[in-house]
Amino acid sequence: MATATPVRTAARPQIRQTQLFIGGQWVPARSGKTFVTINPATEEPIADVAEGDAADVEAAVRAAREAFDNGPWPRMDARARGRLIHRLCDLIEAEIDELAALESLDNGKPVNDSRLIDIPLAVQCLRYYAGWADKIHGSTIPIDGNYLCYTRREPVGVAGQIIPWNVPILMVAWKWGPALAAGCTIVMKPAEQTPLTCLRLARLAQKAGIPDGVINVVPGYGPTAGASIVKHPGIDKVAFTGSGETAQIIMRQASDTLKRLTFELGGKSPNIVFADADMAAAAAGAHVGIYLNPGQCCCAGSRLFVEDSIHDAFVERVVESSRKRRVGDPFDPATEQGPQVDKAQFDKIMGYIEAGKREGARCAVGGGRVGARGYFIEPTVFTHVEDGMAIAREEIFGPVLSVLRFSDVDDLIRRANATSFGLAAAVWTRDVARAHDVARRLRAGTVWVNCYDVFDAAAPFGGFKQSGFGRELGERGLDPYLESKTVTVSLDPPRGR
Ligand code: NAI
Ligand code: MG
Questions:
Q1: Is 51 in the pocket of ligand 1 (CB under 6 A)?
Q2: Would you say 462 and 174 are in contact if contact means Cβ atoms under 8 Å apart?
Q3: Which terminal CB of the chain, N or C, has fewer other CB atoms within 10 Å?
């Protein structure tokens, strides 16, 4: 992990324009177009970003194809690939202040969250996969007959990677780590809301000595740059993190070229508190579960199920800590919560708050905007929520918690699973048997017991049901970037001529 300590002050980076990164060159968009990226804390423009579209994706795919088909990257010693990934991590750690500030400027998250959470996790992920580079191997298989049969694990080729804006640096690491270790080359499209740190990381990758064309970055919009990646026959695989709606479009468009797909999508994760739980720990877990990255987490614990007998006392704790949460300037070190990422997200969340009130839930705390500038929203808790309400069913992706009551365990499991999502869940109890039983019965890719939002690069992450398919992180996270080749060799001695 990067060794980082909280900063007391952080300079706001000065950056006015950016270019595309294609084949090791920094170039303007072929159309000459740019778009503006906005500081969500001030609503002011930060920089003009070169806007890639189909023509730029074409060039990026050509560069990535060349680097894969003829370049050194998939052919070099695996250990050398690992060393280059480690060198990229060294450079990230050396620039952690600048990167953290840039991330906070573009995304709005508190600068100490960038420094102490996002960047250390990103470095951990990249180093974890650097360690895998020389440990990817096949097996020998005892088939019938006089044969030597073995498998080779080979890189899948050019990976198209489309990422969202909620944890930009971390998403780059989750995508680049396994792809680079496997020997793939990359065409990445960062989210239009937050392109800046991805471009900076590409510069560091170049400085680290990762060969030209291995990593290409084309900022732009989804229906243009993103769709061009999805449709391009020169791309072998697409890894996507974002909304289910966009995943459906991608799946349809990728079918023409039968691309391999991995999806990491949304959630409506149940966070379940039994009456015997450690109240203080569970309340802290409920707080972090919903408010981390102000709810802009695919695994946000947005449905808080509380056992009847402790409901009121527990809700009081959560309401109290919500009221105390410090919302404000991401560059103020005392800030715990910054703005939502953009106006679209702000409006969507405020719409859900209105829907919650309209449908009869009770807003116990929050529910409003903070200040008149920037996309800040109060930490918000709804009680008296019914399972059928929009705020109990749909992903809000904001600091809005829906509290539901339960008494019977079987009924609780049914309700917790009654969602098309299945990304994460948590259970709080001191009863060991119950903890494991509930963990087994919840249909979710990750279940936390007496903790929440514990991430580790070694632990696979991904969704059941409509929360996606494929896994990221851990050994499983390599699979989508590898093909398995079976080689069968006859061991019969050559017959005479
Ligand atoms: P989105 O799914 O539209 O955007 C994510 C990425 O996909 C961005 O890079 C975007 O440019 C790209 N994209 C959009 N349309 C595309 C297309 N047709 N082809 C290829 N790429 C495309 O998500 P958006 O609009 O930013 O957020 C909407 C909702 O999605 C959020 O409110 C939240 O509920 C959910 N979401 C979930 C995330 C997660 O971590 N699972 C991350 C971001 C959003
Ligand atoms: Mg969208």
A1: no
A2: no
A3: C
Euclidean distance between CA atoms 415 and 305, whole angstroms? 10
- Tell which residue, 247, 245, 253, 252, has the closest CA to residue 228: 253
Tens digit of each residue's pLDDT (9 = 90 or more) over 146-201: 999 999 999 999 999 999 999 999 999 999 999 999 999 999 999 999 999 999 99
- CA–CA gap between residue 295 and residue 446 (Å, rounded): 17
What is the band of 5 on the pLDDT scale with cuts at 50, 70, 90?
Answer: low
Token look-up 């996790």 returns 121
Nearest CA to ligand 1 atom 9: 191
Q: Which residues contact 75 (CB under 8 A, 6 or more apart)?
A: none
Q: Of these residues, 51, 103, 192, 264, which one is catalytic?
A: 264
Which of 290, 289, 279 has its CA nearest to residue 313? 279
Question: What would the pLDDT profile of 232-258 be if each residue is shown by its tens digit?
Answer: 999 999 999 999 999 999 999 999 999
Contact assessment for residue 421 and residue 463, using Cβ atoms and an 8 Å cutoff:
yes
Quick one: CA dihedral 59, 65, 70, 75, positive or negative? positive
Pocket test for ligand 1, best of 163, 172, 243 (most atoms within 8 A of CB): 243
Nearest to 46 by CA among 422, 435, 330: 330
Burial of 372 (0-12, 13-18, 19+ CB in 10 A): exposed
The alpha carbons of the chain give a radius of gyration, in whole angstroms, of 24
Q: What share of the chain is helix, strand, coil (3-state, %, to 5)?
A: 40, 20, 40
Distance 34 CA to ligand 1 centre (A): 20
- What is the spatial distance between Cα 203 and Cα 221, in angstroms, rounded to a whole number? 21
pLDDT digits (tens, 9 = 90+) for 352-363: 999 999 999 999
In 3D, which of 157, 160, 156 has the Cα closest to residue 227? 160
Closest CA to 160 of 210, 234, 251, 211: 234
pLDDT band at 113 (very low <50, low <70, confident <90, very high): very high
